[in-house]
Amino acid sequence: MKHHKTYYQKELSTPLGNLIIEGPVSSECLRDLSFHEELTAFRPPENQFEALIEIAHLPEGRIILVRENKTIVGYATYLYPDPLERWSEGNIDNLIELGAIEIIPAFRGLGVGKNILHVSMMDDAMEDYIIITTEYYWHWDLKGTGLNVWDYRKMLEKMMNTSGLQWYATDDPEICSHPANCLMVRIGSRVQQESIEKFDQIRFKNRFMY
Question: Omega of the bond prior to 24 within 30 degrees of 0, cis?
Fold first, then answer.
């Protein structure tokens, strides 16, 4: 599959100043920017920055970033699922995963996440993909937001819904390990039925549940 990428940009006004939300950006573009030290949700900032550069270099990889002047203060990643996860088992070449979305604490609660997803979906090529995201409560910033697990899940679902990502059932053991965990999916308008059927077979691997 050929992965077409068209760059889009949006300016977002916040009480703390204006932000630029843009992408997909190249690895060269990323190298010209600095990475905020509070982007620590997944690994140390310098390691996460290198991971983003590597993802941007992948044929299917997409980085949507949020920057304040020349500093990255948020981002989302899209790429093929990890080969060790069930979502890669069907070898569906038009299935990509929203692998991470992170924003520094100062800009949370200002609609930045929703706008990252909006810019992500501005590219018409996204209609060719099944986009998934696996949400696990142990990755959520419950302490920083002051929300309980169910209110956080509600907030997350509402944000994802604005860009067409919907809750989908699955028998994946990791997702089923806690009722707040969830699989969310957006199926593009040009995705063929064959891909959808392959995806459904991956979602439910126990026949009695399919």
Answer: yes
